């Protein structure tokens, strides 16, 4: 493995460990008394003491942190206060909605964003370019959750093609199925992707235009290669490096967007789970979900770093 | 985006060029409307925004109620006007947090380089893993939702954004000949930072501040929509959307007005930022 990837892997692991410390500290140490927060201001000292004992808050913070992290690594988590079910079980159930939604949104983002960006760059300063840039400027200004509401207005209220929200489940026993489940996720995925694609199309356009000005592109054209061949064979691969960076950063926004859009469409995903947990003061669920979402962002950014090395072989040999 | 050596933002003819720039002109007008709405609402609104008037609920737009009323009979126009205050408050403070801390860290990284720079950049990477929404969930779970929770969550996420932009722009300045000359003349790192680096990266930071302001407005709306941001009775565009969603079949337009207000405010700030970028860096404008 190259020095570049080793460094990135070390940074990835360090980020995960520090993130876990921060999440633990914010939810476990800062408020002074977690049991008080969970039970509210009207709790009696006896009930607070009982909950403290149940949660193991009478043990040192370091022991609680290592127990929590060790448990997570072994797939063992504590029970949610509201559901009396291990948080891992709750999260695994909800991921069946959130992961396909995030994946569908990401695929749509890449397809729409990169295609529009390349199209705009190839037609710079012409009608197509102006149209794409106008779309992207509007897309960036529209919050994904409002776009989601507009989609509900159009497709559920006006046209009545789909329901206004909800998720039938993946299993036919629950009245759902693969097709029904996928259909229920289309509008949420489109609402997430529209905004992200708008951002990505601008970056793709800039990256392609920047690469088109490189000397090796002029050389390739001078050799007699057509503009289209230069674009596909030489420009795109080099333009993908900044685009990958943006994609990695966009994933963090996509995850946030997923949390909000799940609430708009009343989807039983991670977003709904964490908001119900905040409302119920179910801090262990909040802690585990937030760490999972942060870990997803970190993992995707690490994957982007690995992809850099694939796209740009110079990085493999360097210690950048 | 770097402007000429030793020069701050060029002033001569700037305003004349600015108003001829379509993006800047349209963006500035929209942003001015946002500011005016917030300013006017401090002293006047058609009705008290939180005044409940059940007999007049879900009214269509009329002379009495320009955009109609919601399910509790509250005047939509008044809520929209006063809602601008929440957006601006969060935007200003979130940008201030990000700007002051992020710019400081970026300048420090650029002036010291080595492990300090590495440390600042890793800290930035780390903070990026906590989008504003996740921070707001964490803080909201402990301290309860509210305007301050939103400001802190969005502001913290702004810190690495400003740190990265500042470091990138400042590093380019540190590589310039006039900085080398200043060092040769015996100027210290902090003197050079104040005299040469800051004036030359000011334009990049102004543009970034405009963009982050726009991002903060969207983030505030999302947090308020979820109940983690501005709390009643203070109106906010995000919470108006949340309440409108329960009336989609009876009064669909209630879900349109606040969204249009958010989109126009964000569009205005983004257009103004784009315009400023072109105006402050003519080289970049020619490339685009």
Blueprint (SSEs and pairs):
The complex is a heterodimer of chains A (320) and B (288).
Chain A: H1 3-29, H2 34-39, H3 45-55, H4 61-73, H5 87-122, H6 127-141, H7 144-158, H8 178-212, H9 215-222, H10 227-264, H11 270-279, H12 283-311, H13 314-317
Chain B: H1 14-20, H2 22-43, H3 76-112, H4 114-128, H5 132-143, H6 147-174, H7 177-184, H8 189-226, H9 237-245, H10 257-280, H11 282-287
Helix pairs in contact in B: 2-3, 2-10, 3-4, 3-6, 3-8, 4-6, 5-6, 6-8, 8-9, 8-10, 9-10
Write structural notes for this entry.
The complex is a heterodimer of chains A (320) and B (288). By secondary structure, chain A is mostly helical. Chain A has helices spanning 3-29, 34-39, 45-55, 61-73, 87-122, 127-141, 144-158, 178-212, 215-222, 227-264, 270-279, 283-311, 314-317. Chain A is globular, with a radius of gyration of 24 Å. Chain B has 288 residues and is mainly alpha-helical. In chain B, helix 2 packs across helix 10 and helix 6 (147-174) runs antiparallel to helix 8 (189-226). At the A-B interface, helix 1, helix 6, helix 7, helix 10 and helix 11 of A face helix 4, helix 5, helix 8, helix 9 and helix 10 of B.
Short description:
The complex is a heterodimer of chains A (320) and B (288). Helices cover 77% and strands 0% of the residues of chain A. With 320 residues, chain A is mainly α.
